[in-house]
Specification:
Elements: E1 9-11, H1 13-21, H2 23-30, E2 40-43, H3 46-60, H4 74-82, H5 95-114, E3 132-136, E4 141-144, E5 149-153, E6 158-165, H6 177-188, E7 193-200, E8 208-210, H7 215-235, H8 251-257, E9 261-267, E10 270-275
Length: about 290
Amino acid sequence: MPKDKFAAVWISHTSISDYLHCPRSYYLKNIYKDKSTGNKIQITSPALALGSAVHGVIESLSSIPTETRFEHSLILKFDELWEQYHGKKGGFRDLDQEHQFKERGKAMLRKVMDHPGPLKNLSVKIKEALPYYWISEAEEIILCGKLDWLEYLPETDSVHIIDFKTSRKEESDDSLQLPIYHLLVHNCQKRPVSKVSYWYLELSHKLQEKKLPDIREAHTKVLEIGRKIKLSRKLAKFSCPQGADGCPWCQPLEDVISGKGEFVGLLNRRDTYILSQESPPSPEDLEDSFLI
């Protein structure tokens, strides 16, 4: 009898990162729900708004035929998407800050239009909106995650995983992001993976190719963390490593729960808040990141 996917523990690069940084942060982002609304919570920030808008524009290109992919300006599409993050919805403290981040996004997209590279080539789309597979059906653990871009390489009938970065900070070599993406692509579509790359959109118009992660090693590492997450959920044990005073990863969310945040709307089915300028920023706010 097939396992019930709704009863499984779902893990992703984002949730794994949350757990490794601070189990309490993982709980507050992935399990906790506001009692009055029944929704999960999140804190918006300029970095998150920038990453979301730029990714939204680029990812929309994969559904357009290659020959017409760049017929229309990406800037116009960006302006449309930006409305979702305008003002407090994007965590901006004033119009000047919003303008600075918006112009950074436009500069990235102009770079893409001038140097489209692999984006002008054939791409592969995984049919599921959120690709997933049972990394361990016996243990009821599912690995999931959205992928930025899969370039099709006809000479080898393989795919090239490309992850777009709006960050000015390069991903660390021990990051699990590419290993997780390799696992997902390997298990969610039929073609082999022959290349993986980051594209730091603000830093360069060229891709930064990385070593292809070993699929078996990736499976072992990710499943081991998945087991720890499942055990924490079973025991309802999500302690902050820094104790009762909290850490930079969980404390901003604790501030929201204690009433220090300002509600700015529902975004991606989560109650979304901003914190006062006096509140210390979380580590995520200090870098332009976009995780899924």
